[in-house]
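Ticket #4471: structure export looks truncated?
Reporter: QA, pipeline team
Priority: medium

Steps to reproduce: submit the single chain below to the structure queue and open the exported record.
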Amino acid sequence: MSTSDPKNVPRTNLRGLASHWRNDLIAGFSVALVALPLALGIAMAAGAPPISGLLSSVVGGLLTTFLRGSHVAVNGPGNGLIVIVATAFTALGGPEAFPHVLGAVVVAGAVQVAFGLLRLGKLGDMVPAAVIQGMLAAIGLIIVGKQLHVLVGQESSASSPIGVFRELPESFANLNPYVALIGVLSVLVVVLHPKVKTKLVHFVPAPLWVVLIAVPLVLLFNFLQPHSIQLLGRSYHVGPELLVSIPDDLIGSLEGPDFTMIDDPSFWMVVFTFSLVNSIENIVSVKAVDKLDSYRRQSSPNRDLVAVGLSTMTAGMIGALPVLTVIARSSVNVNHGAHTGWSNFFHGAILLVFVVFLAPLMQEIPLAALAGILVYTGYKLTAPKVIADTLHKGPDHFLIFCVTLTATLVWGLLVGILVGVVAELVSHLVILGLPPRESFLRLWQTKVEKVEEKGEPHLLRVRGVANYLNIPRLRNALEDASEREHLIVDFTPALLIDNTLLEYTHDFGRRYEHEHEEGRFDVIGLEAHRAISDHPDALHVLERPLRERRLTPRQQRIRELAEENGWEFEARRDWDPSHLDEFHFFRVHPVEYRDTVVRGSYDLDGDEPPIEWTVSDVTFDEGVLMPEVYHTTAQVLHLPFELPELILEREEILDRVLELAGFQDIDFRSYTSFSKKFVLKGPDEASIRRFMTPRLLEFFESEEIYHLESNGHEIVVFKFMRLASPREVEGMLDFSERLCRLLQEER
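Actual output as written to the record:
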């Protein structure tokens, strides 16, 4: 759907609520179901009271929604807080230091507000991408290490991440089988949930499935009463201490901040850690969530820093954890149909209802179940996909990722970030191969020159070392010229262009062309440099042709098929298939790349021009920074005529339930078989009904079921959430040819 059209962008405030409350309520409810166990688990893993995590989500929904600059993001406690808060407890006096931690949270929130008011949000662009990935991966490993102990009913007394991992063999040797059963089942549920294709299963988030499965086991083994269970001659203790603990008097149990340590250097070290790491994580998360927004709205990082800062101050005052923008829950929000920020508000309101009315039920949730969720959450931050992504961007990127990861595990988050930033700079100087004095001189003398000639495009020429330290120079030059119709960035004179600056340049270009209807943005000069890898954002230094990729047997057969029919075949990976964003499915499932591209055309009868088509293997995920990677083989038909915007896909039980709740599916009473097989939806029902002639309806009734989507001038067709075999590719091409003939005849 053409949701990127400014005319279609949802209104905000009360108008947006009136127009989209149903979609946002469903999305907010789904997010609340995810946030409930996650917020409890994050708080407990950090050593804080469970209620503090829930209150953070409530504040993030009820307050942050009205202060921030983002649109479909969800706010609450983030995964990084597990490490930061746990470290804060150690620095400020141990398990009883929660009031002092809250004092640091309030002050850190004020610092974040200052960051936003001073417009320092854009400095987040200067943190090298490899450093951010390394920091997040380290956080993931720390979470996994700590929660594996809880998952088997044990605890770790180690004060360092390395020590936590060293104690794992002992915890596994002394595991409680009843606790471990719940923990392992919980991990299996969250791992298998994305692989189940039933919509009803997907509509209920994986964390809620974990709770629904774990609580009956708690009742079966009677965890509510302390006792021992005999198994194979050994006695294992179970009891309420293995469950979530929430006080009966919620209001009376809330703790307030204590500022008595404000003159202690350790207090300010905690404040600085909270402020810096949370600000970086929030800026990165906001940028990532903007890429998920199907309406392509852009957020203000400075306004968001002020919003999460004020919300964090409020959270600290009532005994809650800091508030951040969280990617995973935001992805759930988008995938469940959120249109405006009201979905975040609904998520906070629903959680508040849970806190007030369902506290007794929460006390039956086992810690092992929450540990299972967090183990998978931590794994996602350092999954094989993350490693593969860093390798795709080049060995230099992978090296800095590993250095940051290791330094963070050994010395902590602040030192890890500093070491990563310095290591990135050192790697650039080494790659340049110049004497140290000359290298620093070239870095210092880096320039972005404006080259203007009357009647010519606006040209920005970059000289020197174009790395992450020079993003402010490039940003200022780009923003000064952003009203021009045609912008060109020329890197020909640059000695080096690093991943972070190149990624920023490409992101700016995509935003510029979207925001300026007549605007064009080009990057030139990279062909004069050697790319470290085939990734478009890889570090560039000298010229070197890339080696041709070796084809798989499947690709060889598809190439043979193309040669037999006179089609074009290309196996090179395309990292910028931005045209796929014009289809709704690929806007909410971001495309990483496509490859194995075949191009051809249908020469239909008559005087009409041929219909050109492209078939390619598309790799996409469920959300930015999410490790669940999917593949499909999709065909795009480039039509010489217009048709309505619509989506046609297989109907499942959940679609019928949503239809009863008021979500429109365009049915045809005379074609019950079609209406039972398919969900048909689009913005203009009258136009779609005119388009779906009896012959078309009968055609779809008799054919195999494909996902088919029209954006008005193109159609995308695919069937599987996997790569299609060569025979299946032929079947899809035959289906599309018959469809095109029928569309031409029905015009």
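Status: closed, not a bug. The export was complete when the record was re-opened. Leaving a note from the reviewer for reference: The radius of gyration is 27 Å.
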